[in-house]
Amino acid sequence: MKRLFVFVLFLSFTGCLIPTSNISLSAGVDLKQIKNIVVMDFKKGGEFPNSSDVIKRAFEISLEKKGYKVMHYSKIKHLVDNENQGAGFSSDILTASLLRKFKKEADVDAVIVGSIMDAWCSPAWMPTCWIELTAQIIGTMSGDLILSANISDEGWSLQEAAQVTADKILYKM
Questions:
Q1: At what angle do helices 158-170 and 51-65 cross, to 10 degrees?
Q2: Domain CATH number, residue 136
Q3: How many structural domains is the chain composed of?
Q4: Is 95 in contact with 83 (CB distance < 8 Å)?
Q5: pLDDT per position as a tens digit, 148-162
Q6: What is the model's pLDDT at position 10?
Q7: Which residues contact 166 (CB under 8 A, 6 or more apart)?
């Protein structure tokens, strides 16, 4: 009984964040057809202005470990700029026509887009960093959604938390 009281007291002082994941891989997708992937910049959220770069690199690392060819955004930047009159990338401009151009002109099979809902670090928490994001993988030939995810996780650094989330999302691929 005393141990339970101490545990509850500990949780009340430290708080309690529970990592969650909701990841859905679309049925009937032939993952063998996907070889070249571009990871787009994630919409930023949370305390860190570089959180988009951190999660983008985490996805690139996970994809490369799984044997995918990760193509740099510069391969398709001119297509995005033409579509959006140079205003930069927004997932809202990912039309079926633009996705097909990615495939035809840059040989991109899929793109990863997403938003960082929250990202922070605090020495009062253990582990100290937290990241929460949404992500989608979209096929360029069909425009079909390949994978959709809402996920949050923790780590001892923002990079570790981002890598854990990227690895979990790409686990099924």
A1: 40
A2: 3.40.50.10610
A3: 1
A4: yes
A5: 999 999 999 999 999
A6: 41
A7: 55, 58, 59, 61, 62
